[in-house]
Amino acid sequence: ETGVTQTPRHLVMGMTNKKSLKCEQHLGHNAMYWYKQSAKKPLELMFVYNFKEQTENNSVPSRFSPECPNSSHLFLHLHTLQPEDSALYLCASSRTRRTTDTQYFGPGTRLTVL
Amino acid sequence: AQTVTQSQPEMSVQEAETVTLSCTYDTSESDYYLFWYKQPPSRQMILVIRQEAYKQQNATENRFSVNFQKAAKSFSLKISDSQLGDAAMYFCAYRSLRNTPLVFGKGTRLSVIA
Known about the structure:
Chain A is mostly beta strands. Chain A has no helices and 11 strands. In chain A, strands 2, 4, 5, 6, 9, 10 and 11 form a 7-stranded mixed sheet that branches. In chain A, strands 1-3-8-7 form a 4-stranded antiparallel sheet, with no helix packed on it. In chain B, strands 2, 5, 6, 10, 11 and 12 form a 6-stranded mixed sheet that branches. Chain B has a 4-stranded antiparallel sheet with strand order 3-9-8-7, with no helix packed on it.
C-alpha cells in the first residue's frame, strides 16, 4: 500500500450518467494528480492540484471536472462521457510539486463507458 | 518536447536470472530526473528507482540497478536474481527540474518464469 486510496475500483457507466471518482491520501502531501492510463498509450497527466489550487489542466475535455476540497482529497466528476474515455484513472500525490518529491500512486479506478 | 521510448513491449526472464529493460529519452535539458515505476497486476504503481542526471554514479536499490548513459540518453533497468513478484509492467519516466509533468514511456510487461 502506498497511502493513496481510490474508490470505486471499478465503474461501469452509460454515456448519460454522472459519476465521481474519489482519491484520498494519508501521507500529508500537498500536491495531488489525476492521470489517465489507456491501453497501448503512455500515462497522460490530466490535472494537478497544489495546496488545493489547480495548477495544471492538460487540455482535458470539460466532461471531466476535478475538485480538491482539501489537500487530502481529490475528486474527478464525470458526465456525458464517451466510450473512448474508458481507461484506468490513477490518482497520485507528492509532498510538493517539485520534481525531487516522489509521486505515490493509488490503485486506480477501472472505468468502462458503455 | 520530451519523449520517453521503451522499445520492448514484453520481456520474460527465468526465476533467479537477470534481465535488463531498455529506455531511451529525448530532451534538450541538462538537469532532470529519471524514474522506473513498477505496476503489478494489482495496479498500484510504485517507484522502483530514480536517478538524478547530474550524478554520474548509477543508482542501485537492492536487486534493482540502472545503467545511465547521459550522452546516449539511455536509462536501462537491470533486475538481478529475478523473483516471481517482479512480474509487472515497468514504466520508465522523465521529469525536468523545472517541475514539468512526468513523461512516461509505454511500458514493458515483464513475465517471470518459474
